[in-house]
Amino acid sequence: MTDLMRDLEAAPPDALLSLMIAARNDDRPHKVDLSVGIYKTADGQTPVLPSVLAAEEQILRRQTSKAYESPQGNPVFCELMEELALGEVSDRRTTFMTPGGSGALFIAFRFAKTITPGASVWVSEPTWPNHRGIATGAGFPCQSYTYKAREDGFADAAAIAASLEEAKAGDIVVLQGACHNPTGIDLDADGWLNLAEFCKARGLLPLVDVAYQGFAQGLDEDMTGVRSFLDQMSEAFLCVSCSKNFGLYRDRTGALIVQCTDEKIRDIVASQVSSVVRTAYSMPPAHGAAIVAGILSDSALRARWEDEVTEMRTRLINLRTVFHSALVSATGRNDLMINRQNGMFSQLPIAPEATVRVQEEKAIYLPKSGRINIAGLNEERAEEIAQSLAPYLSAVD
Predict the structure, then answer these.
(1) pLDDT tens-digit series, residues 174-194
(2) What is the 3-state secondary structure (H, E, C) of the chain?
(3) Which of the residues are catalytic?
């Protein structure tokens, strides 16, 4: 009888999940949870979108089977997601239905290991921790590139390129679409084009992660830079999540779009990616994708969904404006630029140990990185929260 697990040690706890549990168990009535990255309404709820409920009702009425999808998934979903993200379907792209945006990243990195096995993966500093985790899990070493704002609030593309000087041909560069996680700082149109020229000249393989389409300026507006970037690239990955803009967090719905040099290569790539999927989760989950396909293919449901995305985006923009004003008033600082950033996240200049004190003393929960979920704020309490945070932020240069 073997006893191979006897000497195992518990894995380190996930810091964000631990923070979420601590916030949930805190019974102080004035607590504020700015930690977990999910959209919330003013009353702190994450509701099912009405368009999603309507699409689900149609699915339940019409569904006649629970048979597997193919490894590639629902072809209607795949086509509609490519159109939503990139404005059109191209003969040189292949799209796969995946278990959320994380599943798209996982399959992209697993496939990339077969075509550029000696590569490094470059991620922004800071970035969403799972970028590094999924890449290293696929066997890639990870490097970081500089990610900061210029004086006008847009991401500094020149600084990004300068910090990628040591990247070699075949290396993978992870770029985020609109609403960068965790900073909320986005590239402008020129920045995207400049990075496209840089990646082409260096032979770098871009992976663009789009998790918040529609949360910055609009569904099409948020993709303008990404589309112009991909127009310049012969090969690229695009990973798309439906968690935020469709509210399908637990239904794990996403897509991987692989852009190839031509249609012949596309078919070969599709066969290889299918093989990766087959040895990973075999077949993708169908329900969330059926919801998305139902919404995007029905003009009335799509119009309702677009209104819902507009409502969420408008609330985030208003919260940013109110909270920025409150922070300026509370701290006297004009360098935070929260009102120039986009999406659900911003990163406050707060020391890790100060986040622990804020949690203990003020019942405000945020990760040690200082990243806050803007949607966790409430307009009525913005001034109170800013005043509570001000002493800790003012102490940071």
Answers:
(1) 999 999 999 999 999 999 999
(2) CCCCCCCCCCCCCCHHHHHHHHHHHCCCCCCEECCCCCCCCCCCCCCCCHHHHHHHHHHHHHCCCCCCCCCCCCHHHHHHHHHHHHCCCCCCEEEEEECHHHHHHHHHHHHHHHHCCCCCEEEEECCCHHHHHHHHHCCCCEEEEECCECCCCCECHHHHHHHCCCCCCCCEEEEECCCCCCCCCCCCHHHHHHHHHHHHHHCCEEEEEECCCCCCCCCCHHHHHHHHHHHCCCCEEEEEECCCCCCCCCCCCEEEEEECCCHHHHHHHHHHHHHHHHCCCCCCCCHHHHHHHHHHCCHHHHHHHHHHHHHHHHHHHHHHHHHHHHHHHHHCCCCCCHHHCCCCEEECCCCHHHHHHHHHHHCEECCCCCEEEHHHCCHHHHHHHHHHHHHHHHCCC
(3) 128, 209, 244
